[in-house]
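Extended Data, panel c. Modelled sequence:
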Amino acid sequence: MQNQEQLLDWIQLINSGNIGPVTFYKLIDFYQSAEAALEALPKLKKYKLCSRDFAKRELDKAYAKGIRILTKLDNAYPENLLQIEDAPPVLYVWGNAALLNAPLSLSVVGARNASINGRKTASHLAYDLTNNGVLIISGMARGIDSAAHKGAMYAKKQCGETIAVLGTGADVIYPAENAKLYDQIKEQGAVISEFPLGTEAQSSNFPRRNRIVSALSLGTLVVEATLHSGSLITARLAAEQGKDVFAIPGSPQDARALGPNKLIKDGAILAENCDDILEVLSANNHHRVIQYVDKCKKNVDIPESLTVDVSPVEAHGSLTDFINREGIYVDELIRLSGLSPSEVALKLLELEMDGRIERQPGNKVALIK
């Protein structure tokens, strides 16, 4: 476990000019510690020493916000990231840091301008996988990323966990339209970043972010992506890291299907449902599945058996008949609709994907005005 001075050393060193993760670790290896590397840095003209005051301010800001800063010296640092040579020397975690070492995890990536069907596919798969003990990891971008996060959080009686890996500082919301989603992820999971607090969105940061998305999980699922999409970069990184790559096939007439279709041609695993993914994860991570999935299944809502009675939703034709613009508690919606909690959760997920409802604090939903 690192002490505060060691943490300041690591923050100061990684934020020094011309030092990236690979160079950072080379300096650590050569000088045996970040403290010694910092002492030597002024003599090395190639690098520009970051001030100690910056590191102290950074640590103070993190503490004030409740953000945890991890390094490889911390036992909570994610084990999966230790496997890559350019692992983030400093990792900011806002939320539940224990999720970083979840036994089963899958990153879900795809197009920002995703189709309605693509978003529904991503959200339904994330919902099913989360209920089967698989942690969903994505980048909180528009489209597929957002849909996957939402699907995961609707699982486990709307208490499902998810991790968002940001290409900004952990305290910067991007895109701004995802402010509510960002707050929900912090509450139910975690947002993480390797960038200093306050870092705004820059195009060069997102490819760097992608290596964390792929490395943090056991596999990567691509749902809709063009041939030049950053999602294919994530898939390539996953393959290079020895991870499973899954892809949802699509119509060759849709440019957003060309990426996944090419991945399948190149050897990615064709996935159409949750079982396709779980089967592969089970085969490649058998001991994790046995220990974790069985435990999680005890907390999953199993849809009630069909009866001869017709539920109010079947009679009225839509769950929205019970939802107003002021908001209604989900528990009340379950009672009024006559549906099981899992059925209501799936229907609410579809309505949110269609842009017809929004989640509110206190486990409420409302029609979008």
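The chain is about 45% helix and 15% strand. This feature is highlighted in the accompanying rendering.
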